[in-house]
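== Protein entry: sequence and backbone fold ==
=== Local backbone shapes as whole numbers ===
==== Amino acids and backbone structure tokens ====
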Amino acid sequence: MTDVDFAGLWAEARSLYFAQGFPPYASPAWQALHPDDPQRLAAALDAAEKWRKFGDEAALFDWFRNVSGYRFSAEGRSVSELAEARKARPPRELRPTAGWPPIRIPGGNGRYLTYSEGRAAA
């Protein structure tokens, strides 16, 4: 058995892990590394951490495929309908309400709309 500096191997692998300085786990480049190479351990640490966070990779990809199936569909819509859907809607009129705090007017240089009985009757 060879003498291996486990503390040094761990320290170097940890620094490589945080610097992302290693080939992907089980890739041909990873397989070509010497068994004592810290990059090999860093890649294994990365794979283990990803497994801990995300679980089964195949199940994760299936989940992404299912989620990405819900997309906006333009099928059956004319160009004019799509152009109309892209138009910005007019801004809503601000109205103060009884019991609510004053409303700051956007772009109003610090002015506020406040509720008053006279304004409510109008």
Observations:
- The beta strands are 103-104, 112-113.
